Each structure stands twice: as C-alpha cells, then as structure tokens.
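FORM 7B - TANDEM STRUCTURE REPORT

SECTION 1: FIRST PROTEIN
SEQUENCE AND TOKENS:
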Amino acid sequence: MRRGSWKIRIFIGLAIVAFAFIQRCSNKEENPYTGRVQTINMTADQEIAIGLQTAPEMAQQHGGLYPDERLQNFVDNVGRRLVQNSIARETPYKYDFHLLADDRTINAFALPGGQIFITYALFARLNEAQLAGVLGHEIGHVIGRHSAERIAESSFWKTLSMGASVGADMGNVVAGIGQNTLLSNGRGDELESDELGVVFMIQAGYNPEELIEVMRILAEAAGPNRVPEFQSTHPDPENRIEKIREAIEKYRS
C-alpha cells in the first residue's frame, strides 16, 4: 500500500470516529419521566412505530396469543390499572398488554413504545399482585426508553467500529467493547425497571413485596444451573431482591 493511500485511510477513519462521538453528544437528552440523561436518536412516535411493527412477529415466535379472552382481559385490566395510577398515563406511549400462548418459556418483555408481553408459562405461576409487578417492571422499560437507548448505543458502536476498521484492523476490538457496554447497561436497565415497578405497584394499590416473590419464582424456574450474573444481561435475582427492598423502603414511606 502506498504511503499516501495509508494516510488517507487514517484520516477517513478518524473522521468517522469523530463523527460518531459528535453525534453521540448531540443526541443526549434528559428523560422527563426518570430524570436520567440518555443517548437517544429517535422520537417517541418512532418508538411506537417500531413496537407496533415488531409486535406480530414477537407474538408469532411465542405461539401467538393465548386463546382465552377472559384471561387476556384480566391482564389488560391489571395493566391499565398500573398505567392509570402512575406517570405512565402522562407519556405519549400506547400501552398494549399481550398474553402469549407459550406455556414453556417463562418470560415477559416490552417493545419500544408500549407493546408489553407475558408468556402463559410465567402468567400461570403468578397471583394478581405478582402479575402487576411483572407488568409494572415492563412498563418501566418503556418509560425508561431502554430499547431506544440500546438502539442508539448500538448505532454508535457500529459507526465507531467502521471508522476504526477503515483506519486500521481494529474493528473487532471496538465491536467487543461495544458488546460489553451494552451488557453492563442492560443490567442497569433491569434494576431501574424494578424500582419503577415498585413505584407503580404502590401507586396502583398493590403490595410491592410481591415483586420480591416474582424474583424468587424466576430464580426457582432457572434452577441450580442458573447463568452467573457476570455472564448474563440480567442481575442475579438475589441482588435484585436487595435493590427491590431498598426501593420499597424508599417509596412506601
């Protein structure tokens, strides 16, 4: 490779890296519902659109919706009670609660913009207050804009990786750093959503102690071969229980 060509590649690579950092700084904004400063590169309407577009596919992956209108209405009523009695009602998001037919996978998750799912496998293990804890936690993910934040972070690291790979053969190194950052932030998202879930339960008249029982149910379901916390995107249930107790003491008074 000629010397001039090598210099041009370095210059272009540095320019791309600089652009990534400038864009990241310009996308900083304070979440009006949590007060946390985040890197976000999309609007609430875009979050809603992504969630609505992705929801059918996610439902299909879990066997579709559970074919019992009575149970679906029960989930809807608990979800609406949480929204109507919390700051969630002031957000622009459109909250929809879906009971999935999957009776093997114990899981619940939220898409950007308010699409919230719980599998029948998890639902069947919960009482009403525990269901409220799970749904409140997922509402917390929506209000915390965690998916939007992860998308922005992913975009940043991809751009940074491209710039590094143009200037030198370091793309894989930078990509690895990005993955570690996303893993760490993911644990923080879970703890923030646990705290918000406690708040929403209290405001809706549910006993927040039941969220601790949810953590025990998840730990029991995972069994003795549970993935260690440092290898998982979720904090260990025991650590989550400690933080939930702190949140209950903080917001119950």
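SECTION 2: SECOND PROTEIN
SEQUENCE AND TOKENS:
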Amino acid sequence: MIRTIRKYHKWLMAFIGAQFFIWSLTGLYMVTMDIHYIHGESLQRQSQQPIALNQVNYSLSKLLSEYPGAQQITLTQLLAKPVYHFIDKNHTRHLLDAQTGQLLPLIDKLQVLKIAKHQYTGDDAVASVLLITNKSELPSELAPRHLPVWQVVFDNVWAPTFYISQNTGTIVTKRHFFWRLFDWMWRFHIMDYDDGENVANWFLLLIALLGTLAAVFGATLTYQRVFKPNNQGAN
C-alpha cells in the first residue's frame, strides 16, 4: 500500500510541481509589491488646490432645472477651473463650465497634453498621444467602459501611461510596467491566461484537487516514516 502511495505521490508532484513553483513565485511578487504603487498612485499628483467656490456662478439647482435627467453630478476642477461632471438620461457624460453654465466640448489633444503634464509627478516628456474610441483599438489593460479615452504614454523605461476620459478630462486609470507585470503574475497565479477575471476556472480547480491529493499522500508517507519507521517497506 505504501509503495503505491509513494508512486502516485511522486508522479502527482512531478505533474503539478511546476505550478506550485509558479504559485510561489507569483505570490511572492504580489505580496511584496506595494499595491498603491502598482495602482500608479505615485504617478499622479494627489494634492489639488481647493475649488474656488466664489467662481461657481452656475448653481446646482439651475443645472437640475436645465438638465432634469442629470445624475451623478460632481463639482470638480479641470485645469484649475471649476466644472460639473454629470450623466444625462441617455447615459452620456457631460462636462459643464461651473462659471458660465456652458457645455464644454470633448477634450482635445492640446487639452489632454496639459492635463497629463499637470497631473504627472515626473518630468518625462510625452512619448505618444492616442485617442481610442472603439473596442477594436482598446488595449487589454483598459476596460471598455472608459471609452472614449485618450492614451498618454510618457517617455520613460517603465512606460507610465495615463488614460484620460475624452468626455470629462479625468484620469480614469494609470498603467506602468510593474502593473502590467502584476497583471500577468495574477493570470498565472489563478491559471486564467485569457483576461485574468475567472478565479473559478476548471483548470485551477483540477490542479488544486490534485495538489490536495498529493498533500494527503505526502502526509501519509511522513506519518509512516516518522511514527512507523519499521513499516517503510510494507505493501
């Protein structure tokens, strides 16, 4: 019996041992990296000047009267000027000047360059600017819900990247080399090599079950060796 257990334990570990090593390596990377750094928080200026409320001449009540379907209304700043963000009844995002009440046009290339340089904590030049408007152009590191969006890549070895909404001018997400590496580590860790979103895939379940079985066999062999050393050669 013990010989059979030893045989199956050996072959199970030979089969799943590589994945055990991958779990250890990817897990080590994910727990040692600062998650705030991975999210790119160090790339964007965190402190902003307070909104000058004396410049807000267009009231919230007036906005609601002119746009009765407005939802998720936010008073914020765009290049140091107060603006409203809101979503209309057709789920379209709008940007409105909080001083004049005028709807602002979509963010153009000149504006997005100013926003990116103003928000970036580094001093690197901009390497490229790209407007992404449809899913076929969308990189895997960005969710489709952010479209349309500007991609601004800075000239740095780690390729720090801002994704800035064309509708609102806000930075919707930030990416860089270590985030991209973290993303791949996560995919290999949960064994979902497509988009890394399915943590309950059958491949992970299979390896986990085989790993549990190998652990039971290993525990049995350890028990026999430690507590019953005279039975090591038992059948």
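SECTION 3: OBSERVATIONS ON SECOND PROTEIN
The first strand starts at residue 71 and ends at 78.
Strands lie at 71-78, 81-87, 93-97, 126-132, 149-154, 161-165, 171-175.

SECTION 4: SIGNATURE
Preparer initials: ____
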